[in-house]
């Protein structure tokens, strides 16, 4: 008897132009996903997606791709942001006098884990798993 395997669900994908409007659109996209899942508190998710999309807009290249999904192993929410830039995000040391450059440091302190992986076609995916 043949077995039937279902393909894994592909998470909805948001493709953004690299403009100053991208972070706001990404926050709304994440909020909609949380509502679909019945998660009322999306505050940390909105902060994370905003930071990652802002970095992709400022330092990346080309369109920005956002995916928000639940890890099938532990159910935690994962935020992925893709861009075509070759540079990698850098967590800067804490500097209370800086006017910029603290967002990634803050983000690393409020998520379960995060990382960056290169894409075969160029660019990278920066991701964060929420607690």
Describe this protein's structure.
The chain is α+β, with helices and mostly antiparallel strands. The protein has a single domain, classed as 2-Layer Sandwich (Heat Shock Protein 90), CATH 3.30.565. 31% of the residues lie in helices and 25% in strands. It contains three helices and five strands; from the N terminus they run βααββαββ. A five-stranded antiparallel beta sheet has the order 1-2-3-5-4. β2 (64-70) and β3 (77-83) form a beta hairpin. α1 runs antiparallel to α2. The longest helix has 17 residues, at 43-59. The protein is globular. The mean pLDDT is 92. GO terms for molecular function: ATP binding; protein serine/threonine kinase activity. Residues 22-127 form the Histidine kinase/HSP90-like ATPase domain. It comes from Actinomadura rubrisoli. This is ATP-binding protein. Keywords: ATP-binding, Kinase, Nucleotide-binding, Serine/threonine-protein kinase, Transferase.
The total count of helices amounts to 3
CATH architectural group: 2-Layer Sandwich
In percent terms, what proportion of residues is strand?
Answer: 25-35%
State the helical fraction.
Answer: 25-40%
Q: Low-confidence stretches at least 5 residues in length (pLDDT < 50)?
A: none
Class by helix and strand content? alpha+beta
Protein name: ATP-binding protein
Organism: Actinomadura rubrisoli
Domain Histidine kinase/HSP90-like ATPase: 22-127
Keywords: ATP-binding, Kinase, Nucleotide-binding, Serine/threonine-protein kinase, Transferase
